[in-house]
Amino acid sequence: MKRVIVQSLSSIILYVLMAMSIGSFTAGVYQAMSSYQNEGTLVFEMNALPWIALIVFGVIWSIYSYKTRSDHSLSFWQWSIRMTEFEETDERERFITKKSTKNAYTSFGISVPIMMMTFLFYPLFQDAFPTYPIYALASTLIISTLVYMTTWIRAYTQ
Amino acid sequence: MPLINRVKELRARHQLTQGDLAAKVGVTRQTIISLEKGSYTPSLLLAMQIARVFEEPVESIFKIEEEIE
């Protein structure tokens, strides 16, 4: 259970950092374009902090996940294309994973249309929050990961 | 249809801990805990492995609740 909690929370942190990094890059591009249109000079500025945090966290997370992998016969490349959340040790854990995946899939079916509906209002706040689509996409991933984790914990402790 | 079992009783009779039984049948201790509580219905394979450990027929260890009533 600890493995699923750690991996799910790490995934959520990674999604947040990715959204912030890409968001800061996109905001920089928006700003550069508007300065070019208004003043004729192209000045690109970006907050590098989220990118640094993303790289540092990504490296630490990869090392930790690789060191604590359940199947030590796997090479780094074999391990890197597997989802650690799906490393079940027996039939009950496989059953719980199946149930959690089903719930996470269902959550996509609810959260994605809701997020799509919010895009109806996007033109109204596009100038104030131009990076909204990135955060909307990240939030659907975060919701499904949270659903996966909570279903797993509830089923495991039953 | 809930499945009830005598795993706890047989485990005690054979002086096995939950961890011992789990290792013998190749599952986690948590699975044995859930099984004894009746919150997990095992696969036929696991039920047969448990029956082999206790040297009893599967149907004497696992019963559908209706059959008992």
Write the layout of secondary structure elements.
The complex is a heterodimer of chains A (158) and B (69).
Chain A: H1 2-39, H2 49-67, H3 76-80, H4 91-118, H5 122-125, H6 132-156
Chain B: E1 3-5, H1 7-13, H2 18-25, H3 29-37, H4 44-54, H5 58-61, E2 62-64, H6 65-68
Antiparallel strand pairs in B: 1-2
Write up this protein.
The complex is a heterodimer of chains A (158) and B (69). With 158 residues, chain A is mostly helical. Chain A has one domain. Helices cover 75% and strands 0% of the residues of chain A. Chain A has six helices and no strands. Chain B has a two-stranded antiparallel sheet with strand order 1-2. In chain B, 22% of the residues are buried. Chain B has one domain: 434 Repressor (Amino-terminal Domain). Chain B is 62% helix and 9% strand. Chain B contains six helices and two strands, in the order βαααααβα. The mean pLDDT of chain B is 90. The two termini of chain B are 12 Å apart. Chain B has 69 residues and is mainly alpha-helical. The chains are: A mainly alpha (158), B mainly alpha (69).
